[in-house]
Amino acid sequence: MLKYTIRRILGMIPMLLLISFVVFLLAKAMPGDSLSGEIDPNNTDPQYIEEMRERLGYNDPIPVQYFRWVGGFIEGDFGKSTRYKVPVADLVAERLPNTIFLGVTSLVITYILAFAMGIYAGRKPYTFGDNIIGGLNYLGLAIPSFIAAVFAIYFFSFNLGWIPYSGSVDPTLQPGTFDYWLSRIHHVIMPAIVLGALATASYTQFLRNDIIENSRKDFVRTARAKGTPTSKIYNVHIMRNSIIPLITFLGFDIATLISGAIITETIFTYPGIGQLFLNSVTNRDYPTLMIITMMLSALTLIGNLIADILYGVVDPRIRLD
């Protein structure tokens, strides 16, 4: 297991270098640059803009710009945001806790709902309850997250006034107090439900189908023939095999904590990494855009590694060499 992990980590290095090259080229392929929006014939001196481009290195050859950016990245210098005029590392560090809080809350909601509905539907297939759960799953798969977010704001914020429609916390509260954390939960609960409830559909269907399939296998028939209680058959023998596909989702959900919330954070005006990423695209904030993209890529690779390792933990028959 240790050798496999080390080998996979070393294999990530050339992959990340390739990803950095693609990300850099795609960013440079975008029309204009971070100074294009500041050009105003009435208020801006074009010579000043050209001097700023020269100072920032925008006129240097592409290979020179790339290796300068990669060198700074390796040294821990992620550059300075051209939009917010602060170091990108500080900008990401300020927004990242909000996104992690949102992502973890949505994952808790997803797994609670998925396990509850998936186990029920798998143990009682083709019943009225299973059909209701299936209908809810198809509805969740059909509704885009941004549509659900807009309707949630309209009904629960504007009409009922139950939840705030923007922000992550009441700014008048003292950080660290009970009321502060209660306000954070109050602000995050609706975006988390939108993300978590819609993601539940695929999890529930995978778990349901695997429970039904595993319940028909020979080892279950043997356990029943030996007089093993039904609850033990489902909770020990079947569930241990059925949750393996969900382990794959759990690994990739590490990247989903950030990337999956881009639209939802923007609609709810939730100050997280997703909203920052979208703003960096519209404002051509290259340093912020490239660092967030690299972070998402690294999290995806790490999530894939974690998923492979968890395979061996959940099912000892799987050996990683």
TrEMBL record:
The keyword Glycoprotein does not apply. Pfam families: BPD_transp_1, BPD_transp_1_N. InterPro entries: BPD_transp_1_N, MetI-like, MetI-like_sf. Keywords: Cell membrane, Membrane, Transmembrane, Transmembrane helix, Transport. It comes from the Bacteria. The chain crosses the membrane at residues 100-120, 141-165, 185-207, 243-268, 288-314. It is found in: Cell membrane. Residues 96-307 form the ABC transmembrane type-1 domain. It is a multi-pass membrane protein. The keyword Membrane applies. Belongs to the binding-protein-dependent transport system permease family. NCBIfam families: Opp4B. PANTHER family: INNER MEMBRANE ABC TRANSPORTER (PTHR30465), OLIGOPEPTIDE TRANSPORT SYSTEM PERMEASE PROTEIN APPB (PTHR30465:SF0). This is Oligopeptide ABC transporter permease. The gene is opp4B.
